[in-house]
């Protein structure tokens, strides 16, 4: 079970948090379309509304009004192939002896099963099979013995994997990023309070100011009167494991993640793509929407180099077609690409065309597009991809299909080119990705393009020294 989602938390001076939470979930809708939810606290009790569907469908006007209290957390959940699972909709909320807890999780733990088994052995009853409930139970247990910060630290010592969490304990909202900072999380200042969100676009939507990213291993506690926040750097690892695919595909281009504006990174990736494998053609066109910033960087670098390639929007997207990627059968996915994208014949006919996309996963989109463009008269179709070949699954929170479905697993670029029937195909190198992100390879999670992960995943290789935390019910926290 992977949790590929958007999370948010808000603490305000004396206004209900539900509406800002609702708007920020709208801003994070691209991170999850299966379910949406908000849990608030009014100083006495929690109020919760969690529904399946898009934010606009999950909440009616009365639902937002009924969520009282100046603090709260929210969540949008990403769907998994073929399954719509209401038991895993979030935020997860529960009342324990140690107080009420709400949890929103983006990421994926690699040792959730071990912790679940151990807690179940101690009498904890679970209502879902998701990671989030495991974290909630562990934290609730620690809260019986420790203060809030120590309890979170103790839970972080036990859980291993990727997580960006917003947590509400009674009327205090917290944000936590795993020690390697795999998934994003940032802090924003509003006129009358503070917000934690997966992406800064949510802060912009509320006319707030991005303060900064939450650091890997950092715990942020928003003061419940909305006047500020406190920071606790609980873990300090030598290396980070930021997910490069957030910048390539998942995040909004107008978000700033780990101090980089996603749009600028994508344009730089496009420029690098031209530098590494630019091909002369009559037109360059993006595969909308994800290929746009890459294609504009690519075309700009081409023009700087003296090429007279024309930049054109030659593929139109039907904006009412939802996500096709997760459709269960290949036949449906192929039909859906055709529903989603249509070429403008006059920009293509009789021309050599380069199409730019951010990634190839199963190959459905590029295969269909090359055929479509040839059907409407393109003389040559070249494909340029702004990421390296995806050869392995993602265990850290992004749906990448299984290894046997990945077109690049075990194939050379020329074999893939032949499969998608393109005249030429090039991907971007891993070094170019690291350079565009102004990072070193050892500070990125590159598992899906190298097959080596920064976490200890059963049956997979790792690219660094990692140790799984011991599962122990004893307190391991040092006095500090
Ligand atoms: P495919 O058609 O299977 O090769 O998938 C590639 C297309 O899906 C590209 O246009 C990407 O923009 C998009 N894409 C890549 N990764 C994902 C993902 N994890 N979820 C949804 N769409 C994706």
Task: Please outline what is shown here.
With 480 residues, this protein is of the alpha+beta class. The chain folds into 2 domains: 6-241, Aminohydrolase, N-terminal nucleophile (Ntn) domain (Glutamine Phosphoribosylpyrophosphate, subunit 1, domain 1), CATH 3.60.20; 262-438, Rossmann fold (3-Layer(aba) Sandwich).
Low-confidence stretches: 475-480
Largest β sheet strand count, sense and barrel closure = 7 strands, antiparallel
Question: Taking Cα atoms only, what radius of gyration do you get, to the nearest Å?
Answer: 23 Å
- Spatially, the strands of the biggest sheet line up as 3-2-4-1-10-9-11
Give the full name of the CATH homologous superfamily of the largest domain: Aminohydrolase, N-terminal nucleophile (Ntn) domain
Shape-level CATH architecture of the largest domain? 4-Layer Sandwich
Average pLDDT, rounded to a whole number, is: 92
Summarize the amount of helix as a percent range: 25-40%
Shape: globular
Beta fraction: 25-35%
Using the coordinates shown, work out and report the CATH topology of the largest domain.
Answer: Glutamine Phosphoribosylpyrophosphate, subunit 1, domain 1
The SS-based structural class is alpha+beta
Overall domain count: 2
Alpha carbon gap, first and last residue = 35 Å
């Amino acid at each position: 079970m992977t949790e590929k989602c958007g999370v948010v938390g808000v603490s305000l001076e004396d206004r209900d948090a539900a509406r800002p939470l609702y708007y920020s979930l709208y801003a994070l809708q691209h991170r999850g379309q299966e379910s949406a939810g908000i849990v608030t606290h009014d100083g006495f009790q929690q109020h919760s509304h969690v529904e399946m569907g898009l934010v606009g469908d999950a909440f009616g006007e009365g639902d937002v009004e009924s969520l009282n209290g100046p603090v709260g957390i929210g969540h949008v959940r990403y769907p998994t192939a073929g399954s719509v699972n209401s038991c895993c909709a979030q935020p997860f909320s529960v009342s324990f002896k140690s107080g009420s807890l709400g949890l929103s999780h983006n990421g994926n733990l690699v040792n959730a099963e071990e912790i679940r088994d151990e807690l179940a052995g101690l009498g904890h009853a679970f209502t879902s099979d998701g990671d989030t409930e495991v974290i909630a139970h562990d934290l609730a247990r620690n809260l019986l013995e420790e203060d809030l910060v120590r309890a979170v630290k103790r839970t972080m010592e036990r859980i291993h994997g990727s997580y960006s969490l917003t947590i509400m304990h009674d009327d205090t909202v917290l944000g936590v990023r795993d020690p390697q900072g795999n998934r994003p999380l940032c802090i924003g200042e509003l006129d009358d309070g503070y917000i934690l969100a997966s992406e800064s676009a949510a802060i912009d939507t509320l006319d707030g100011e991005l303060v900064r990213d939450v650091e890997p291993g950092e715990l942020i506690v928003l003061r419940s009167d909305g006047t500020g926040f406190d920071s606790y750097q609980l873990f300090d690892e030598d290396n980070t494991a930021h997910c490069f695919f957030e910048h390539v595909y998942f995040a909004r281009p107008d978000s700033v993640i780990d101090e980089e504006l996603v749009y600028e990174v994508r344009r730089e990736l496009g420029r690098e793509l031209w530098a590494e494998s630019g091909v002369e053609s009559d037109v360059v066109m993006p595969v909308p929407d994800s290929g746009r910033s890459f294609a504009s960087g690519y075309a700009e670098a081409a023009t700087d180099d003296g090429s007279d390639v024309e930049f054109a929007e030659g593929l139109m997207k039907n904006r009412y077609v939802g996500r096709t990627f997760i459709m269960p059968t290949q036949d449906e996915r192929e039909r859906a690409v055709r529903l989603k994208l249509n070429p403008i014949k006059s920009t293509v006919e009789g021309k050599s065309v380069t199409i730019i996309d951010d990634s190839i996963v199963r190959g459905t989109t590029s295969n269909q597009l090359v055929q479509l463009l040839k059907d409407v008269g393109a003389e040559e179709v070249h494909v340029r991809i702004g990421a390296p070949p995806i050869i392995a699954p993602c265990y850290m929170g992004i749906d990448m299909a299984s290894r046997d479905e990945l077109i690049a697993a075990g194939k050379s670029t020329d074999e893939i080119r032949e499969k998608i029937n393109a005249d030429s195909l090039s991907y971007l190198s891993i070094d170019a990705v690291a350079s565009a992100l102004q990072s070193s390879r050892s500070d990125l999670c590159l598992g899906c393009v190298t097959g080596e992960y920064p976490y200890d995943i059963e049956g997979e290789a790792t690219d660094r020294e990692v140790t799984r935390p011991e599962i122990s019910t004893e307190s391991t926290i040092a006095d500090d």
